[in-house]
Amino acid sequence: MSEFTHDVLVYGPGFLSAAWTVLWLTLVTIGVSWIFGLAAALGQRSDMRAVRSVAAFYVWFIRGTPALIQIFIIYFGMPQVGVRLSPYTAGVLALAINSGAYVTEIIRSGLSAIPAGQTESSLALGFSPRETMRTVILPQVFRIILPSITNEALSTLKNTSLLSTITVVELTLYAQTLISATFRPFDFYIAVAVIYLVLTTILTQLAAFFERRYARLY
Amino acid sequence: MTQDAPPPLLKLRDIRKSFGTLDVLKGIDLEVAPGEVVSIIGASGSGKSTFLRSINAIEPADKGRMEFEGWDFDFDRDSRFFPTDRQLQALRSRIGMVFQSYNLWPHKTVLQNVIHAPMGVLGQSRTEATEVADALLDRIGLYDKRDASPLRLSGGQQQRVAIARALAMKPRLMLFDEVTSALDPELVNEVLQLMASLADEGMTMLLVTHEMSFARDVSSRVLFFDQGEIGEEGPPSKVLRAPESPRLQQFLHSILHDDLRTSTAKKGLIQ
Q: What is the pTM of this model?
């Protein structure tokens, strides 16, 4: 048995389960970040000044501070004010809040790319502003922002490695654990890099599929 | 208008609108009888588009009253007759509007554009809405494009689909806001022809237009907008042929050249 086959058999299952953790963390985070991003992007256009201010503060604060610090605030900081979250919950929450701020800006730019006439023709037919946003504007926005939202999803996936600092057993932390036992940092970090590559490739392919599907409609 | 004229379909009183310190509409009064075709002409900035957009409250007036199909609204915010959001939506669903830039939805097919509002606003079933839409698309000669993207159509075709989309709601009143201004000259006719046939069928229409021959041949009345007021109004034979005010004379003179240039293209359009 070659050494490589041996490594795969011994460490493979652990890497697989860590990769699975990364994948579901990423997917849940992306979902939540879109909700935050959409809410904040619509908040920026609200008639209410207070809502606009909150949305602006959110984007300003998150984009202006490191993701790692945001993670630390939520996982290590919040218990001091009585909110204790599991590493996984805190991790998803922190990454989603972080990514949501960037998604906000992406959606904002998408919204501003839709001509006012699109909204007007929908309102003129008797649709409410909400229905207009949901059925006329957002589907068009989604198509426009698909490339940038894909980039943001890739960032989110790679940012899950930051959660190794708060004991989430994802790829990076799993590799570190193995390295401290085997003293083979080169092998295992390369392995981790390859697995991240596989995951990001899957994600880009998925996005490319959607892009092709939307392109056909036009 | 004859003495036994039916009650007006639309009644507007003292419609006012300002943008900041600029008074765009300075108190417009207008009554439109069922089946009437009213053309609004005037220089750019005279408030004619703003007026049209205030009628279906896409840009509500600041002041003024409006009666339409049993509604009686007062656009003064303090009035208890100020329309609710729901009332405005209902009002808009009864008034069709066609825009200069068509504003078809590019993420939907031609058919989907036409059935979206009947399904979403009127609650029609897909079958029901599609039946109406297919008949309309057939009428405008674009049935074979029903599954195409609107972006694949010419400007004239897009504008006809936009008209069909508005007609699918079975409106009582149609508003046309410079609907041929964005079109290449050779595509203007197909749209005007469709509008003329609607007028023939008795559709009540208000249109802002630069097509003087269309205004002359199809409309029952012409309004000349001048600096936010109706400067002159009457049958086209009077307003366009024998204008009284110097400003209208000047306006007609300035566009005469344009109209002559395109009138060859329109020859044979309307007898």
A: 0.87
